[in-house]
From TrEMBL:
PROSITE patterns for the chain: PHOSPHORYLASE
Pfam family, one: Phosphorylase
Family: Belongs to the glycogen phosphorylase family.
Taxonomy of the source species: Bacteria, Pseudomonadati, Pseudomonadota, Alphaproteobacteria, Acetobacterales
Originating organism: Falsiroseomonas stagni DSM 19981
Reaction catalysed by this enzyme: [(1->4)-alpha-D-glucosyl](n) + phosphate = [(1->4)-alpha-D-glucosyl](n-1) + alpha-D-glucose 1-phosphate
Name of the protein described by the UniProt record: Alpha-1,4 glucan phosphorylase
EC top class, as a word: transferase
Alphabetical list of InterPro entries matching this protein: Glycg_phsphrylas, Glyco_trans_35, Pyridoxal_P_attach_site
Cofactor(s) demanded: pyridoxal 5'-phosphate
Coiled-coil regions listed: none
GO molecular function: glycogen phosphorylase activity; pyridoxal phosphate binding
Keywords: Allosteric enzyme, Carbohydrate metabolism, Cytoplasm, Glycosyltransferase, Pyridoxal phosphate, Transferase
CDD domains associated with the record: GT35_Glycogen_Phosphorylase (cd04300)
EC number: 2.4.1.1
Length: 826
C-alpha cells in the first residue's frame, strides 16, 4: 500500500555545526514539498524532491532577476535579443546551484533528509528544446551573456515534445514523442498575460492615405496566440540573471461551440489542433508540403512574437522606435529567424508609419546574423507560392527589398547579369524560391561565421558575391563552450585536480589553464590526470553495463563520435574503419593491438533515410564484432541511444579520442571538439571547422590530422571523383566494402547495404573512400601513442591546458564589442 501523502514526519532539527543557510534552505525545501506539491517527506519520490529543491533554488534567483531587469531599463542599457529555434539547455539544477555557489549548502541541507542530490539531478528531465551543436551553442551563449553581465533575452519555442525520443529496435532508429513536460517544469514562469497574436494567410489591402501615400493593411485569415514562458538564466557566481522567453502556441478560439453542439466533436477542435501543432515538435519532417508549411509557420511564429515583445517593451521605456538600434541588438542564430527582417520592416512601416527610407536603415542597424553552415539545404529557401499564401505582406516587402537591393547592385556593377542573379533574394531556377540566407545578409549590419576556416569559406563560396558587395559585413566569431558545465560540473574530479595544481583562479579565468602546460610532462601529475580519466571511464562503463549488459574495458581507448548522424559528419567512415580493424585483428591475432571501444551516439533526422541506414549498419557491425570470441575484447562497438546533454555529460569526460572527421569544408565549427579536448581527449580529425584552430593551440604533435583539405575536396569534385578509384588502391577498404555489400553483417537481409556501398563506389560526394586509408593510418598512430603512456598523457594534459581560448565567454565578449556594441563586465 502506498504511503499516504498527507502523513507527517518528525521535524528535522538544526544539526550541531550546521550553517544557518543550510538549515534555512532545508526549511524552504520542506515547505515547497508540503505546500506546492502536497507531499509529505514519507511519501515523496525523487521526482518530488527534485521539484521542491528546484523551486527553493528558484526563489534564490527571483529577487536578483527582477532587480537586474529593472536596473537595465532604468540605466537605458542596450539589450541583446538572441533568436534561436533551438536552446539545448539540458538539466538546470546543477547548473543553477553551481552558478549560485550553493552546492555545499544544498548538500548540507539535504543530508539530514536522507536525500541524495545525485538522484535529484537524474530525476530532472532534459529540456527537449534542441538537437545538437546549434542549440547547445545557444545555451552556452545565454549563460555566458549572464556571466559577463550583458542584459539579454533569449527567444525560442517551448516545444511540447522537442525533437523526438530515439529508441533503437533491432538496430533501427524509431522516433517517439519526448515527454519532458509531463510532470511540469519547475524552472519556468508561465506568463499568460504576455500573449501576442500571430497572423497567417489572408489578404493585403492598399488604403490610400493621400495622393503621395498608400498604407498597406494585412488582414490575416488565421490568428494564433504566442504565450510566454520565462526561465531565468543565471551567470557564474550569480553575476547577472537574464531571461529565456519561450513561446507556446494557443488557438484564439480553442473550441467551436456551434460545431461541438451540432455533433462534430472532433471538427470543433480542429482550430486548436492546428494552432498548437506549431509548438509541438522541433523540426517536423518537411518531406510533405504540409510539413514544409509547418516549419515556416514555426519560424514566423516565434520571430514575430519576439519582435512584438521587444518592441512593446522598447516603446514602454523609450517611446520611439527610431532609437531601436541604440537600445536593441537582435542576433539571428542561423537562418531560421531570418523572416525577422521582413517582419521588423512590416512593424515599422505598416504599424508605426515610419517611412521606408528610415525603416530600412533601422532594420539593418538592429539585426545581425550568424551563419552556421555551408550546406545549401541548410541555408533554407521557401517556395514563393507558399510565402505568398502564408505571409502575403512579407512577400511584398521581400520583393521591395530585393528591388532596391538589385537596383543598387546594378548601379555599381552594370551589365553583370550573373552577379544580379547570384545576390537576388529570389532564386529563379527550378521553381521560384525565397533565399532566407540572402535575406539575412542583406538585412543585417554584420554577418559572422563560427570558425576561422568557415568564415573564410563563406567569403569564398556561398556569400562570395555578397563579400564583394559588402566587404566589411562578413566577419568571424569562433564558437566557444561554457567551462562551468563542460568542465566544472561534468568533470568534478578533473576540476579538483586543476584547482590543486594551478589554483582556484581557473574557476573564473579559463585562460589560466595555460599554467598547466609546464606540468604536462610531470610523471606524478600525469598519474593523477590518468586516474581521473579512468574513474570517468568506469562511470561510463557502468552506465553501458546497466543499460545494455555490455562490459567495457576501462583500460581500452574510448574512441568517441557523438553528434547528429549525417553523411558529411562521416560516421560511415568510422564504421568502415571498425570493419577493417576487425579483419586485421582476426588475421593477425599475435600482434600487439591496443584495445579499443568505439562509442557512437546521435540522432538521424526522421526523414533522413540514409542516415538511419548508417545507424543500422553500426548496430549490425557491433552485433558481429561484440559476439566474436576471436577478437578477445580487443574491439567493442556500442551505440548509445537518445543522445542528449545529460548523456554527453557522462561521455565527454570519459573519452580518450575525439572523432571530428567531417569532410573538409563542410563542418562550420563544431563545439564537441572543444568539450572533448578540454576534458583531456586527443582529437582525430580533418582540417575542418574549429579543428584548424584547435590544432594551432594544441600543436601538431598533440592532434591526429588526416585526409583531404578543403581545396583538395573541391578539386576532386570538379574532376568527377569516383570512389571506385580509391577502392581499387586499398585492399582493406575493398575487403570491408565487399563484406558489407555481401551481407556478412546483415545475413537476414544480404542486400540491405548494396545501395549504400554502390554510392561509395560511385560519386562518393563526402569523400569517405578518398580519406579511408589516411584515416586508417591515423588510427594506427593513435594506437601507437596509446601504447606509450607518458607520450599519451603529455598530449592529453596539453589539450586541456590549451583550451582556455575556446571559452564561450571569449566568444560573447567579441560579439559584444565588435557586433552588438554593448559593454562587458568581467
Amino acid at each position: 500500500m502506498d504511503t499516504p501523502t498527507t502523513s507527517s514526519a518528525p521535524p528535522i532539527p538544526t544539526r550541531p555545526g550546521e550553517s544557518e543557510d543550510a538549515a534555512a534552505l532545508r526549511e524552504v525545501i520542506l515547505r515547497k514539498l508540503t505546500y506546492d506539491l502536497g507531499k509529505s517527506r514519507l511519501g515523496a519520490r525523487d521526482r518530488d524532491w527534485f521539484i521542491a529543491t528546484a523551486l527553493a533554488v528558484r526563489d534564490r534567483i527571483v529577487d536578483r532577476w527582477i532587480d537586474l531587469t529593472r536596473a537595465t531599463y532604468q540605466s537605458g542599457a542596450k539589450q541583446v535579443y538572441y533568436l534561436s529555434l533551438e536552446f539545448l539547455i539540458g538539466r538546470l539544477l546543477r547548473d543553477n546551484v553551481s552558478n549560485l555557489d550553493l552546492l555545499p549548502t544544498l548538500r548540507e541541507a539535504l543530508e539530514p533528509l536522507g536525500v541524495d542530490l545525485e538522484k535529484l539531478r537524474i530525476a530532472e528531465p532534459d529540456a527537449a528544446l534542441g538537437n545538437g551543436g546549434l542549440g547547445r551553442l545557444a545555451a552556452c551563449f545565454m549563460e555566458s551573456m549572464a556571466t559577463l553581465s550583458i542584459p539579454a533575452f533569449g527567444y525560442g519555442i517551448r516545444y511540447d515534445h522537442g525533437l523526438f525520443r530515439q529508441i533503437i529496435r533491432d538496430g533501427w532508429q524509431r522516433e517517439y514523442p519526448e515527454d519532458w513536460l509531463n510532470d511540469g517544469n519547475p524552472w519556468e514562469f508561465a506568463r499568460p498575460e504576455i500573449a501576442h497574436e500571430i497572423g497567417f494567410g489572408g489578404t493585403v489591402e492598399a488604403v490610400t492615405i493621400s495622393e503621395a501615400r498608400v498604407k498597406h493593411v494585412w488582414k490575416p485569415s488565421e490568428t494564433v496566440q504566442a504565450v510566454a514562458y520565462d526561465t531565468p538564466i543565471v551567470g557564474w557566481r550569480g553575476a547577472h540573471v537574464n531571461t529565456l522567453r519561450l513561446w507556446s502556441a494557443r488557438a484564439v478560439d480553442p473550441l467551436r461551440l456551434d460545431a461541438f453542439n451540432s455533433g462534430d466533436h472532433v471538427g470543433a477542435l480542429a482550430n486548436k489542433v492546428k494552432a498548437e501543432s506549431i509548438s509541438k515538435l522541433l523540426y517536423p519532417s518537411d518531406e510533405s508540403a504540409s510539413g514544409q508549411e509547418l516549419r515556416l509557420r514555426q519560424e514566423y511564429f516565434f520571430s514575430s512574437a519576439a519582435l512584438q515583445d521587444l518592441i512593446r517593451r522598447h516603446l514602454r521605456v523609450y517611446g520611439d522606435l527610431r532609437s531601436l538600434p541604440d537600445r536593441v541588438s537582435i542576433q539571428l542564430n542561423d537562418t531560421h529567424p531570418a523572416i525577422v527582417v521582413a517582419e521588423l520592416l512590416r512593424i515599422l512601416v505598416d504599424l508605426h508609419d515610419i517611412p521606408w527610407d528610415e525603416a530600412w536603415p533601422i532594420t539593418q542597424k538592429t539585426i545581425s546574423y550568424t551563419n552556421h553552415t555551408l550546406l545549401p539545404e541548410a541555408l533554407e529557401s521557401w517556395p514563393v507560392p507558399l510565402m505568398e499564401r502564408l505571409l502575403p505582406r512579407h512577400m511584398q516587402l521581400i520583393y521591395l527589398v530585393n528591388a532596391f537591393h538589385l537596383d543598387s547592385v546594378r548601379l555599381k556593377h552594370p551589365n553583370d547579369g550573373r552577379l544580379l542573379s547570384s545576390v537576388s533574394l529570389i532564386e529563379e531556377g527550378h521553381g521560384r524560391r525565397v533565399r532566407m540566407g540572402h535575406l539575412a545578409v542583406v538585412g543585417s549590419h554584420k554577418v559572422n561565421g563560427v570558425s576561422a576556416l568557415h568564415s573564410d569559406l563563406l567569403k569564398q563560396t556561398v556569400f562570395a558575391d555578397f563579400h564583394r558587395l559588402f566587404p566589411d559585413r562578413l566577419t568571424n566569431k569562433t564558437n566557444g563552450i561554457t567551462f562551468r558545465r563542460w568542465l566544472q560540473q561534468c568533470n568534478p574530479g578533473l576540476t579538483s585536480l586543476l584547482v590543486e595544481a594551478i589554483g582556484p583562479e581557473v574557476l573564473d579565468r579559463p585562460e589560466a589553464l595555460a599554467k598547466l602546460k609546464p606540468l604536462a610532462g610531470d610523471k606524478a601529475f600525469q598519474e593523477k590526470f590518468a586516474a581521473v580519466k579512468r574513474a570517468n571511464k568506469m562511470a561510463l562503463a557502468d552506465l553501458v553495463k546497466d543499460r545494455f549488459q555490455l562490459r567495457l574495458d576501462p583500460d581500452a581507448i574510448f574512441d568517441v563520435q557523438i553528434k547528429r548522424i549525417h553523411e558529411y559528419k562521416r560516421q560511415l567512415l568510422n564504421v568502415l574503419e571498425a570493419v577493417a580493424l576487425y579483419d586485421e585483428i582476426r588475421s593477425q591475432p599475435t600482434r600487439d593491438w591496443a584495445p579499443r571501444v568505439k562509442i557512437f551516439s546521435g540522432k538521424a533526422a526522421s526523414s533522413y533515410h540514409r542516415a538511419k541506414l548508417i545507424i543500422k549498419l553500426a548496430h549490425d557491425v557491433a552485433r558481429v564484432v561484440n559476439s566474436d570470441p576471436t577478437v578477445r575484447n580487443l574491439l567493442k562497438i556500442v551505440f548509445l541511444p537518445n543522445y542528449n546533454v545529460s548523456l554527453a555529460e557522462v561521455i565527454v569526460p570519459a573519452a580518450d579520442l575525439s572523432e571530428q572527421i567531417s569532410t573538409a569544408g563542410m563542418e562550420a565549427s563544431g563545439t564537441g571538439n572543444m568539450k572533448f579536448a578540454l576534458n583531456g581527449a586527443l582529437t582525430i580529425g580533418t582540417l575542418d571547422g574549429a579543428n584548424v584552430e584547435i590544432k594551432e593551440h594544441v600543436g601538431d604533435d598533440n592532434i591526429f590530422i588526416f585526409g583531404l583539405t578543403t581545396p583538395e575536396v573541391e578539386q576532386r569534385r570538379r574532376e568527377g571523383w569516383q570512389g571506385q578509384r580509391a577502392v581499387e588502391q586499398s585492399r582493406r577498404l575493398q575487403e570491408a566494402l565487399e563484406q558489407i555489400e555481401a551481407g556478412v553483417f546483415s545475413p537476414d537481409d544480404p542486400g540491405r547495404y548494396r545501395e549504400l556501398v554502390g554510392n561509395l563506389r560511385g560519386s562518393d560526394y563526402f569523400m569517405v573512400t578518398a580519406d579511408f586509408d589516411s584515416y586508417f593510418d591515423a588510427q594506427r598512430a593513435v594506437a601507437e601513442r596509446w601504447r606509450n603512456p607518458a607520450a599519451w598523457w603529455t598530449s592529453a594534459v596539453i589539450n586541456t591546458a590549451s583550451m582556455g581560448w575556446f571559452s564561450s565567454d571569449r566568444t560573447i565578449a567579441e560579439y559584444a564589442q565588435e557586433i552588438w556594441n554593448v559593454p562587458v563586465k568581467r
